Automatic annotation (TrEMBL):
Top-level taxon in the UniProt lineage: Eukaryota
Source organism per UniProt: Gopherus evgoodei (Goodes thornscrub tortoise)
UniProt GO cellular component terms: I band; T-tubule
Assembly, per entry: Interacts with Calmodulin.
Covered residues, full protein: 58 to 250 of 298
Keyword GTP-binding: yes
Swiss-Prot/TrEMBL GO biological process terms: negative regulation of calcium ion transmembrane transport via high voltage-gated calcium channel; regulation of skeletal muscle contraction by calcium ion signaling
GO terms, molecular function: calcium channel regulator activity; calmodulin binding; GTP binding; GTPase activity; transmembrane transporter binding
Protein's gene: REM1
Name of this chain's protein: GTP-binding protein
Record's keyword terms, sorted: Calmodulin-binding, GTP-binding, Nucleotide-binding, Phosphoprotein
Family: Belongs to the small GTPase superfamily. RGK family.
Length: 193
């Protein structure tokens, strides 16, 4: 199986695994209910029926082939109800990339996304970390409260990438994680150049 729950979060930047490839930590942030777990499960290839029960195990590792090159992502799901807990603080420190998720059917979650972006900027001030803003639940057309234009405009202000997804329809989910890989590589390349 390509999926392995992982609990080795100990060192501070990108790790190398046994094959010598880089491992990057991707942290999902966003209000409860916006679809973070659903997105991570799709990434990890997990079906609803074998979901892990206990929170705290919400990290999944998978190697993606993007543009002919392999990169391993360790995707960590946080939960905002425990915004102040140690795990959340830890995630704010160790991510190599951040995915901030809101639901297009929930304006409050869109506002929370802005707060999270500000919080990230404060925590990781000097670093040029990739951030992807994600408007999820696009399948719920008639319940939409946040337009695609608003999402895009917000991403411009935040200086981050933007994509709309539907975990329910599995729409744009692969594109989201491939985009994360490309953003990480762009930063790596400019660092090495
Ligand atoms: P989390 O709290 O952010 O991890 O959100 P979950 O992944 O647990 O999702 C919360 C609820 O929204 C669940 O009932 C999901 O089935 C549902 N959900 C997640 N993504 C979508 C989506 O794209 N479309 C629809 N219609 N429902 C979704």
């Amino acid at each position: 199986a390509p999926v392995a729950p992982c609990s080795s979060w100990s060192s501070d930047s990108a790790d190398s695994d046994s094959s010598g490839e880089s491992l990057y930590r991707v942290v999902l942030l966003g209000d409860p209910g916006v679809g973070k777990t659903s997105l991570v499960n799709l990434f990890a290839g997990i079906q609803e029926r074998d979901l892990p029960e206990q929170p705290g195990e919400d990290a999944y590792e998978r190697t993606l082939s993007v543009d002919g090159e392999e990169t391993t992502l360790l995707v960590m799901d946080t939960w905002e109800t425990e915004r102040r807990n140690r795990f959340h603080n830890y995630c704010m420190q160790v991510g190599n990339a951040y995915v901030i998720v809101y639901s297009v059917t929930d304006r409050v979650s869109f506002e929370s996304a802005s707060e999270l972006r500000i919080q990230l900027r404060r925590t990781r001030q000097a670093e040029n970390i990739p951030i992807i803003l994600v408007g999820n639940k696009t399948d719920l057309v008639r319940c939409r409260e946040v337009s695609v234009e608003e999402g895009r405009a917000c991403a411009v202000v935040f200086d981050c990438k933007f994509i709309e997804t539907s975990a329910a329809l599995q729409h744009n989910v692969t594109e989201l994680f491939e985009g994360v890989v490309r953003q990480i590589r762009l930063r790596q390349d400019s660092k090495e150049a």
